[in-house]
Amino acid sequence: MIHKKKITTLFSLAVFVLIGAAASLPQKNGRNLQVLPKDISDQMLDSIMQSYNKALSVSCNFCHSPAKAIFPVAPAAGSLDFALDNPMKETARRMMQLTIAINKTYFYFDTASRPEYLKVITCKTCHQGHPFPPEN
Ligand code: HEC
Ligand code: HEC
Questions:
Q1: Within a 10 A sphere around the Cβ of 60, how many other Cβ atoms?
Q2: Which of 25, 27, 67, 96 could disulfide-pair with 75, CB 3.0 to 4.6 Å?
Q3: Is 126 touching ligand 2 by the criterion CB < 6 Å?
């Protein structure tokens, strides 16, 4: 009897550990960088993403898809799967490449900085707070 109880306890513990692991997956392994440097710090990545929100006057979900359930855990309401790709994210990647290329080609004065982090031309230069840049 005692033995059976132990096994039940161990089994429940294992289930909890698995649920915990599944729940933390989207955050922990949430990188799929193809344009930004792969060794970028969390802080730098976050501040760049915040700058996109501001430049286009959008929220993170403009480019990032809703998180899917990872059985048996349903995602928290409104949570996003940042690593998942979608067409808007791909468009944004091309925009990032364009912006980096302009800075790297024409404004790479401070070679101590990485071209991906130059801010002479930014999303805001063209977008001015709109998803589609206004025609002047
Ligand atoms: C204009 C579109 C856009 C907006 C808005 C945006 N992101 Fe991103 N985000 C991207 C793109 C594109 C990538 C992938 C960059 C790459 O491939 O180097 C990315 C990558 C990420 C990643 C790493 C996952 C990955 O794909 O490598 C995280 C985390 C992330 N964004 C969080 C955020 C957060 C938090 C916000 C809101 C504060 C936000 N993003 C707003 C476009 C956007
Ligand atoms: C040189 C000017 C310029 C810069 C710099 C620029 N963009 Fe754009 N972007 C545009 C133009 C123009 C369009 C509209 C293209 C069209 O009409 O299809 C656009 C469209 C987009 C779209 C699609 C919007 C939609 O609703 O379909 C996204 C997303 C975007 N840009 C993100 C960015 C991000 C993020 C950056 C900075 C990394 C950036 N852009 C930098 C000019 C620019």
A1: 13
A2: 67
A3: yes
- Pairwise CA distance, residues 3 & 5, whole Å: 5
Phi, psi of 86 (to 5 degrees): -155, 170
Is the pLDDT at 29 greater than 90, yes or no? no
CA–CA gap between residue 133 and residue 136 (Å, rounded): 9
Nearest partner of 114 among 2, 46, 37, judged by Cα: 37
Cβ of 103 below 6 Å from ligand 2? no
16 alpha carbon – ligand 1 mean position (Å): 30
Token pair of 60, please? 């993170």
CA–CA gap between residue 118 and residue 78 (Å, rounded): 32
Q: Per residue in 43-76, pLDDT tens?
A: 999 999 999 999 999 999 999 999 999 899 999 9
